[in-house]
Amino acid sequence: MLESGKYEKFIRFIYRFFIGSTVGLILLILAVNFNFLWLFGGMPSLQELENPKSQMASLIISEDGQEIGKYFRENRNPLSFEELPDNVVNTLISTEDARYTTHSGIDIRSMFRVLFSFGTSGGGSTISQQLAKNLFHTRSMEFGEDDPLYMGLLMKIDGVRTVVAKVKEWILAIRLERRYTKQEILAMYLNEVSFGNNAFGIQVACKTYFQKELKDISLTEAATLIGLLQNPSLYDPRIRPEKTLERRNVVLGQLAKYEFITQEDLPKLQAEDLNLHYRVENQNTGAAPYFREAIRQQVLSALKELNKDRPEDQQLNLYTSGLRIYTSIDSRMQKYADESVKEHMRAEQKLFYDHWRGRNPWVNEEMKEIKGFLKDAMRRTQRYRDLMAAYNNDEFKVWEELRRPIKMTVFTWDGDKDTTLSPMDSLNYYKRILNCGMMAMDPTNGHVKAWVGGINYKYFKFDHISQSKRQPGSTFKPFVYGAAIENEIVTPCDALVDEPVTFGEEDGLSGGTWTPQNSDGKYSYQNMKLRRAMGLSINTISAKLMKQLGPAKVAEFAHKCGIESSLHEVPSLCLGASEVSLMEQVAGYSTMANGGERIDPILVLRITDKVGNVLKEYSPPVKAVIKPETAYLMTYMLQGAIQEPGGTAEGLKRTSIVAGNEIGAKTGTTSNYSDGWFMGVTQKIVAGVWVGGDDRSIHFRSLALGQGAKMAMPAYAKFMEKVYADQTLAIEGYRKMPFTKPENFTFDLTCLGRSASADSTAIVDP
Question: Above pLDDT 90, what percent of the chain?
Fold first, then answer.
C-alpha cells in the first residue's frame, strides 16, 4: 500500500508539473506576445512582417546585361525559390529541418528532444525560427536598435533575454508561416543568412567560395555551404579546411539518411576535395573598379535628390536598398580594355626599368636628377603629417620611423608580393611605376563603353580619366585645325610652309617673344597641305593657324566640342599647353565623329529600385555645336596620321584594324616626354589613352621612347583588335565602317583643280 501511495503521489506531481509548466508556458507566450507591463518589448508589426528590412547590395549592370559590381555593407543578392537548385533545397531541409514541410513553424518533436537531452542533441529551431532570428536580430541588442519598442526591461538581462528571444522566435515563426508559403520562407532564409566572410545569401556565398553561379553548383559544394550555416567562423574553409570538410561530410550523411542520395554514393562524395576558389568581393575586385567609383558619386547625388520627398522609413540607400544601376559600360569592351592596358603596360614598365637602370628617373628639364625628390614627395603624404603630429614635429624621429622596415604587400605585374620595406623604400618603388588611363565611347549616343582609370585600383586609386588633368600636347591640335576650318580660314586642301613662326606682344604675350619648334628642332621649309601637316604633327603649321585665328577662337571651338576645363588663351594653346582630362578629350573628338553634334559622356542610363521601378533616367541633350561639314572634314583630316607618309600613327597599318576601315588618329607628346597620348576615332568608337608617371618629372629621356605613338598607341591598337574580333559586337554595329558623310556634302577631298600656292595665300604668313 505504501508503495502504491508513493507512486500515486509521483504521478500527481508529474501531472501537476506538466499542467503548471503548460499553463506557465502559455502565460509566458501571452505575456511576450502582448508585452505585459512593457517587460518583454514589442513585436514586429504586420507591415514589418510583410516587408522585413534586409540590407541588399545595389547591383551595377552593364549595357549588355552583365553584373559588373556592387555597392554593399552586407553583400547580398536575393534569389526567388524558382532559382534555387534542388540540391541546395534538399541539402538545407535534410540538415536543418527534416520535418520542414509538415510543421507550422515549430517542430514539437524537436523541442521535446532538446528538452529531454538538456540541449546535448543539437538545436530544435526550425528554418522558420531561424529566419525570424536573422530577420529581426532577436538574440542581440540589435533587436532594439531600429525600434526601441522592441527592447523591454527583461530583454536587457542576458539569461532572460535568451528565453524571451526564443519565445519571440516561436511567435514570429508561426506568423511568418501564415503569411508566406514554405517556398517563400526557404528563399527568404537562404537570401538572408550569413555564410561568413561578408557573404550574405547563398548566391553571394557560391560566388565567394567557388566563383560560380548558384545554378552551376554541385551537390558537394551545396553541402559545403549548408554546412557553414551551423557556425561560419568555426567552419571557415580558409582557416579550418579540415573542419569544413568534416562538417560537409556530416551534411552528406544527412542527405543519405533522408534518401536524397544512396548509401553507395556516399563514400565517393565524401572523398571529394573541397575545391575552393575563394575570392571575397570588395571595392577593389570585379570589373571596371575605376568606373564603379566614378559613378558612385553620381548615384549618391541622384539619391540625395530622390530622398528629399520620401518619408524617413522609405529613404533610399546606395549600400542597403538593393538598387539596380544600369550603366553604359559594355562588359566585353571593358574586358578588352583591361586586357589591353595590362598587356601594354607590363611591357612598357619593363622598358622603363631598363631605360633607367642604375639611375633615378626623376629629372628636371635639363634631364638632371632632382635632388631630395623622395623626401619632398614624402613630406606631401598624409603619413608624414600624421607622424609629425605624433612626434611633436620632431623630424629626426619621423625620418627614423620612415626608414624602419615593415612587412607589406606591394603591387607587381606578376601579382601581389609580400615583402619587407621601409615607407621610404616603398615610396621609391612606387614612384618608378608608370600609369595609364583609357576610355572608349560611342560618339553616336554618348555611351561610355570602357573605362580603365589606372593600372590597378587596389594600389592606385587615382583615376586618370576624370580626376587627372595633364597637358594633351599635340592631341589638342585637331581643335586648332577644326577652328580654322569652322571659321573658313582654311580647307584641308590648303597648304602652308613649314617655317618658324614668332609670337609677340601683338599676339597677347606679356613681354618677350615665342618661336615654337618642331619636335625634331628642324624646319623643312616645304609647302605642306594641312592634312599632311596635321598627320605629321608639324608644330609650325599649328602655330600659323593660331596666329591667324587667335587663341580665343580656338578655345571657343574646343569648348563647343566638349573641353570643359579652363583654357589659357595664349599662343602656346596651339601645342596643347592647357591641362585637360582624358574624358574631355574623348568627348571633344566624339563631337567631330558625330557630325558636329555634342553628346556629353553618359555613364549611368537609369536607376531602379529592387523591384524594377524606375527611379531616375539619364538622357543628356544632343546639341549641334559645329557645322556637319567641319566635323566630317576633321574625320578626314584625322585619317592623315595613318595615311600620310611619315604620319605619327602610321604604325597602325601594321595592325589588323586599318584594312577596310576608316580610322582617324592623333598622337600627343608633352614637354620632356612627360605625357604620352593617343586618340583614335571611328564612326562607332572614340577612344583615348594616356600614359605617364604620376609625377611629371618621371618620364623617358628620348622622343623615340617617350612619344605618344610608343607609349600610348599600342594599347589602343590591342583594344580595337579585340573589339573587331568579337562577332557579337560586330552584330551590334561595332565593326569596320566609313564615317557618315553629311547630306549635300560637296567638298572635293581629292583637291583636284586646287593650287596649293594659290590656296595658301589665304593665310597671312608672319
Answer: 68
Domain assignment present for 612: no
The C-alpha atoms of residue 289 and residue 62 are separated, in whole angstroms, by 13
Task: Tell me the pTM.
Answer: 0.80
Q: Do 582 and 686 belong together in one domain?
A: yes
Q: Which three cell numbers stand for residue 747?
A: 567638298
Residue 83 lies in a domain: yes
**Summary count for the chain: helices (H), strands (E):** 29, 18
In three-state secondary structure terms, 447 is strand
Please give the C-alpha separations between residue 297 and each of 585, 608, 615, in angstroms, as whole numbers: 22, 17, 16
Give the range of the structural domain holding residue 706, as residue numbers without chain letter.
435-607+620-745
Classify the phi-psi angles of 473: left when phi > 0, otherwise alpha if psi is within -120 to 50, otherwise beta.
Answer: left
CA atoms within 13 A on the CB side of 629: 14
Closest C-alpha among 664, 673, 727, 729 to residue 698: 673
Instruction: Return the sign of the alpha-carbon dihedral for residues 286, 345, 475, 655.
Output: negative
Is residue 357 packed enough to be buried (19+ CB in 10 Å), middle (13-18) or exposed (0-12)?
A: exposed
> From CA 377, how far away is CA 361, in angstroms rounded?
14
Q: Using CA atoms, how far apart are residues 79 and 214, in angstroms rounded to an integer?
A: 10
| pLDDT tens-digit series, residues 744-760 | 899 999 887 554 443 33
Question: Do residues 720 and 687 make contact, with C-beta atoms less than 8 angstroms apart?
Answer: yes
Strand partners, 514: 503
Alpha-carbon gap, residue 567 to 561, rounded angstroms = 13
Residues 499-539: pLDDT tens digits? 999 999 888 888 889 999 998 889 999 999 999 999 999 99
As a whole number, the mean pLDDT across the chain is: 88
Q: How many CB atoms lie within 10 A of CB 679?
A: 31
Residue for grid cell 605613338: 709
Q: Measuring CA to CA, which residue among 439, 437, 749 is closest to residue 589? A: 439
Cα-to-chain-centroid distance, residue 717: 24
Q: CA 86, CA 92: separation in Å to the nearest integer?
A: 10
Helices 477-486, 539-549: axis angle to 10 degrees equals 40
Q: How far apart are CA 382 and CA 720, in angstroms?
A: 40
DSSP string, 293-322: HHHHHHHHHHHHHHGGGS-GGG---TTTB-
**Listed residue (302, 317, 218, 211) closest to 261, CA to CA:** 218
Same domain? 572 vs 427 = no
**Are 372 and 443 found together in one domain?**
no
